[in-house]
Specification:
5-stranded mixed sheet; 5-stranded antiparallel sheet; mainly beta
Length: about 250
């Protein structure tokens, strides 16, 4: 952030400045941040900060940077410790606000639907769909679909309420970024059904691999918003059985 004043608004070299971060809605001052002031020429001040500490910020909330200017250090200290920008202004401090910025949060996980829950390898077209995600801008969300082999530690059956596993299914830890990790998704025999796209639905046929019996998967849907925030939700299924024939 850079603030400056010059021609037509000369700044005395005795002027004092501070950058603060405040809520846009009520002007509440949350934090005074590191401020560097220089006077590159008479009557001109350059006020900078390279500091950004998000620890006091909440997601899905609008904030502003505000530049406080006072004629002496005592007044500036009082304004910087005021509760709001408006309160600082009543002390005779000049307050200049930036355009507001939104602290983006990753999407909140939604639901995943799989139809049918069980089908034949290379024959059944499985429909994967997702909905119910929350975000500051749900229209910007893009979705990616993955299936992972469930592994031999579970027994899966179709029950009255859908697929059931024994023991109860617990999603494993998956590393989506570090290709050197043993938990990297590409090392877990995963199949990416579709990379990020705007449609919340995709249809795919699946293989049972070399298995001569039913082969169970779990499905992960990842959602990415316009700011790059990513979240995922995981569901058991589908179950793939070897085809009765390969015609």
């Amino acid at each position: 952030q850079v603030g400056s004043a010059g021609a037509g608004c000369e700044v005395p070299s005795s002027a004092m400045f501070a950058w603060v971060v405040a809520k846009q809605a009520n002007g509440q001052i949350l934090k005074v941040i590191d401020t560097q002031v220089s006077f590159p020429s008479p009557g001109v001040a350059s006020v900078r900060t390279s500091s950004f500490d998000g620890s006091s910020l909440s997601s899905s909330t609008n904030y502003v940077y505000a530049l406080l200017r006072a004629e002496n250090a005592e007044t500036l200290a009082a304004g910087s410790s005021a509760d709001t920008l408006e309160a600082a202004a009543t002390l005779g401090i000049s307050v200049s606000r930036s355009l507001p910025f939104l602290v983006d949060a990753a999407p909140s996980p939604g639901q995943v639907q799989i139809l049918p829950l069980q089908g034949e390898a290379l024959k059944t077209s499985f429909s994967f769909g997702t909905n119910g995600w929350s975000d500051e801008d749900t229209s910007s969300l893009q979705f990616a679909f993955f299936v992972f082999p469930l592994g031999d530690g579970y027994t899966v059956s179709v029950g009255a309420n859908g697929l059931e596993s024994s023991p109860a299914f617990q999603p494993p830890e998956i590393d989506w970024n570090d290709a050197t990790s043993a938990r990297f998704w590409g090392k877990m025999d995963a199949l990416m059904i579709r990379s990020f796209g705007t449609s919340p639905n995709v249809i795919s046929k699946l293989s049972s691999g070399s298995s001569s019996s039913s082969y169970a998967f779990f499905t992960v849907v990842r959602a990415r918003d316009a700011s790059g925030g990513v979240a995922e939700t995981t569901v058991l299924g589908p179950v793939v059985t070897p085809p009765a024939d390969v015609s």
